[in-house]
Structures are given as C-alpha cells and as structure tokens.
UniProtKB/TrEMBL annotation:
It is found in: Cytoplasm. Belongs to the class-II aminoacyl-tRNA synthetase family. InterPro entries: aa-tRNA-synt_IIb, aa-tRNA-synth_II, aa-tRNA-synth_II/BPL/LPL, Anticodon-bd, Anticodon-bd_dom_sf, Gly-tRNA_synthase/POLG2, Gly_tRNA_ligase_bac, GlyRS-like_core. The lineage of its organism: Bacteria, Candidatus Magasanikiibacteriota. This is Glycine--tRNA ligase. ATP binds at residues 193-195, 203-208, 278-279, 322-325. Residues 8-370 form the Aminoacyl-transfer RNA synthetases class-II family profile domain. Substrate binds at R99, E161, F208, E209, Q210, M211, E212, E318, T319, S320, D321, G322. Homodimer. Pfam families: HGTP_anticodon, tRNA-synt_2b.
Length: 458
C-alpha cells in the first residue's frame, strides 16, 4: 500500500503521541514540531541505532558533542556568511515568499538567476498569480546575541550544520584519542536554518537534528572511502527495514554542488505526495574545511604521517543524515492500513493500522495487558512489567477489550503483547502475541526474559 500524501502520518503522529505542532495552544509556530512520548522514543531509537552503527561498532570512528553556539569566525571560514543563501522572491500582491529555484524547477526550467534571465521566465506567484520581485539572496542562518549587548560585536549564529563543531575540534580529537588517518568523528545534534519555504511536516523545518560523521583521509584514499560510506549508509536504512523500492541514490550535478563539495550523492526516500527527496547525503568536501579553518584561525590543522614522513591537510568524506527526516521516513515506511484482520465477523473493524517498525526502533517493545483491573491479576501483571522494564521499554494497558488493546499496540508498532489472564494465576504462564504474525504462544512467566532476549537479540 502506498500513501498518496502525508496526511495519514500527520494524523497518526498527533493521535498517538508521536509528533505535535510546536506551541499549538498559541496557534502553533510555523514548521517547528515537538516529539511526544512515543515520538521521543522512536527518534531516540533512530539516533541510538545510528550511533551504534557509526561509533560503537567501528574502531575508526569516535564521537563528539560540540556546542551549538560557536565563535562567529567559524562561519566566515566555512563560507556560510557569504554563501549560505537561497534565492528569494516576494509576491508584490499577497506578500508571500518563495524560493525562486523551486518555482523554476516546478516549471521544468533549470534555475538561472541572472536578472535578465529571471525576467524572461514570466514566473508569477503560484498562490495569487501576482507579480514577483527580483531575486535576492537570503542568508539562512539564525542570528542571535551573546551577552548583554545587542550590537554587532556580540552577534553570533545558531549553527546551520553540526559538522563545523567537528572541524574546529579536529586536533583535539586526533591528539587526545591518538587517532591515525583515516578516522572519523561522529556527532548528533540540533541545527537551525531559516528556511524560506519550510513544510511537508517534519521534512523541512527550521530547527532539526543532524547525524553527521566526518571521515578524515589522505586524498589518495578518496575513491575507496567514498564508495565504502555510500554503501554503508544505504545499507543502514535497509538493515532497519526500509523498503528497497523506496530508496535511491542521486548524484548532484556540478551546478548544484555546495560551495565546499567536489562530489555529492543523496540517498533519497520516496516521501508520499513529494516523490523522491533527500534523506541523507554523502559528500566529498576536499580539504576545503580544514584549509579554511587553518587560514582563519591561524592554527595549523595539517596532519603528519610519521610512517610516510608526509604532512598534509586531510580531506573529508562526510555522511550527513537528518534525524527528523529519517524518523519520518521510518514512520511512513512502517505504516500499513489493512482490512480487519482480527475480531469475529460481527465485530470486524473497517480498517486496522499497523506500524511494522523494526524491533530496535519501536517506541514500546512489550505491552503488558492484564485481563482484569483488579487484584490478583493486577499484582501479577505489575510484577511481570517490573521484571522486564529494566531491559525493555514497556507499557501497561488495562482499559478496553483485549482486541482493542492489541489494535492500539499494533498502531504504535509494539512488537509483542503479553496478556495476563486468570489461568496465569494457576499455570504461571502468559500469552505472548506477535504484532506481525498475530501468532500467540503460552510462555512460562519465569522464562519471559530469556524468551524476549532471543526475540530481540537474535
Ligand atoms: P535540502 O536540499 O533538502 O534543503 P540540504 O542539501 O540543504 O537539504 P544538507 O545540508 O546536506 O541538506 O543537510 C544534511 C541533512 O540534514 C539532509 O540530508 C537532511 O536529512 C537534513 N536537513 C537539512 N535541512 C533540513 C531541514 N530544513 N529540516 C529537516 N532536515 C533537514
């Protein structure tokens, strides 16, 4: 089943506590979102899975958590003050703002913003048909002020990408960890961009989270390393259950490369109603970043290879994934609307919703469902939950019919439900139900932990 648009996901996200509009009681803050109780679990699991694959399971990558606020010279060196802009046009009538490149692309025209070229295209406001202004460059960085004075000397920026925190710490990390090239530094953190046309739910927001890794290499290693990371990043999405047909690579054409990039590939996901759009990127950044930071800081950021007796400025292959875009893509990919598969004929339900999330990503791993709210079943189900909650995220649900409770758990992607019934008091067994197969098994309460260990870790 493929969705036509994001509406069912937006609705599920709100209904079941995954994602809410930010500041909703004040009418909402445009393109900012809050992760609810289940959303924060899902997103944390996505980040944990990324960290495990990128840091824990590798000897050549270490982690970092750099500050969001950085010395303003960072952004001069990185080229963001001069070049991190989008082409902006305003509608002279309705005052709405648009990305000029998106307007041209929508008409099948390759973006070109030389003034006379832009005029020639006769583009009008897509909303009201009004005339548009000339194209202006709009810097996407959020400005703020540090300290009590609001003047130019105290102006700083919220970082628009996390990787700069890695570059300025290159020597700190390399020396303290005695790392030899090639090695990588990984980081997860917030980034901020004053996007002109945000939208499509959490796909394009002004505050978002990146999962970035910078791999420092000798330029001779480039081809091999680039291929290694391209393969590894795509495989990661497949390993966590994303459907192959919803993923593709796209290489950036030379005229769309960012100012620092020599080669760039996107991993694209087929977002409903949007088509294939960027989920992650793999970039060859050359030695642009460390050269520029050497120049602007006056610190020598080169690396000395003792074996080869060679000094050079390392080149960088970057992998850049969006935690929010990945979380959204995992939600979409796992979402299924199916015709009633449970209940007796007269109790059939029109539609059931199942989130077939990978077990590692599911927000709740095990739901405990006692058939009665009263003692002694309550006591027993509390004991069972307490024996499992130290290892897995659990939820206790005691309201509604058992069928309703199964469907509630299916809808949030819980892989297993444990039903505690009156027989459990006698035979010390519970029924474990599988989300995907709906198969039910009687399992000894004393063996539940081993049972789930084999289910989750095999
Ligand atoms: P786009 O072309 O969609 O604007 P980008 O090329 O500017 O993206 P990068 O600078 O390569 O994106 O950022 C790396 C990753 O960060 C992206 O692949 C995406 O997952 C995420 N990302 C970038 N901008 C946003 C945003 N506004 N909202 C949510 N995630 C974002």
């Amino acid at each position: 089943m493929s969705l036509e648009n994001l509406e069912p996901i937006v609705s599920l996200a709100k209904r079941r506590g995954f994602i809410f509009q930010s500041s909703e009681i004040y009418g909402g803050l445009s393109s900012c979102y809050d992760y609810g109780p289940l959303g924060v679990e899902l997103k944390n699991n996505v980040k944990r899975a990324w960290w495990k694959a990128m840091v824990q399971e590798r000897n050549d990558v270490v982690g970092l958590d750099a500050a969001i606020l950085m010395h303003p010279k960072t952004w001069e060196a990185s080229g963001h003050i001069a070049g991190f802009t989008d082409p902006l046009v305003d509608c002279k009538d309705c005052k709405k703002r648009w990305r000029a490149d998106h307007l041209l692309e929508a008409k099948g025209i390759k973006p070109d913003f030389r003034p006379c070229e832009w005029d020639k295209h006769n583009v009008v406001c897509p909303d009201c048909g009004g005339d548009l202004t000339d194209v202006r460059k709009f810097n996407l960085m959020f400005k703020t002020f540090m300290g009590a004075l609001e003047d130019n000397t105290s102006q700083i920026y919220l970082r628009p990408e996390t990787c700069q925190g890695i570059y300025v710490n290159f020597l700190n990390v390399q020396q303290s960890m005695r790392k030899k090239i090639p090695f990588g530094v990984a980081q997860i953190g917030k980034a901020f961009r004053n996007e002109i046309t945000p939208g499509n739910f959490t796909f394009r927001t002004r505050e978002f989270e990146q999962m970035e890794q910078q791999y420092f290499i000798h330029p001779d290693q480039k081809k091999e390393v680039f291929e290694m990371w391209k393969k590894a990043r795509m495989q990661w999405y497949l390993d966590f259950g994303m459907k192959k047909e919803n993923l593709q690579f796209r290489q950036h054409k030379s005229d769309e490369l960012a100012h620092y990039a020599a080669e760039a590939w996107d991993i694209e996901y087929n977002y409903p109603g949007m088509g294939f759009k960027e989920l992650a990127g793999i970039h060859d950044r050359g030695n642009w970043d460390l050269s520029r930071h050497s120049e602007y800081s006056g610190q020598d950021l080169s690396y000395f290879d003792q074996e080869k007796n060679e000094k050079f400025i390392p080149h960088i292959v970057e992998t850049s994934d969006g935690a929010d875009r990945a979380t959204l893509a995992f939600l979409i990919d796992a979402y299924e609307e199916i015709d009633a598969r449970s209940g007796s004929d007269d109790a059939k339900h029109e539609k059931e919703y199942v989130l077939r999330l990978h077990k590692d990503l599911a927000p709740i791993k095990i739901a405990i469902l006692p058939l009665s709210k009263k003692e002694p079943l309550q006591n027993l189900s509390n004991e069972i939950q307490n024996s499992l909650r130290g290892t897995w995220m659990t939820q206790h649900d005691e309201t509604g019919s058992i069928g309703k409770r199964y469907r509630r758990q299916d809808e949030i992607g819980t892989p297993y439900c444990v039903t505690v019934d009156f027989d459990s008091l006698e035979d010390k067994k519970v029924t474990v139900r599988d989300r995907d197969t709906m198969e039910q098994e009687r399992v000894d309460i004393g063996e539940l932990k081993d049972y789930f260990n084999s289910k989750f870790y095999n």
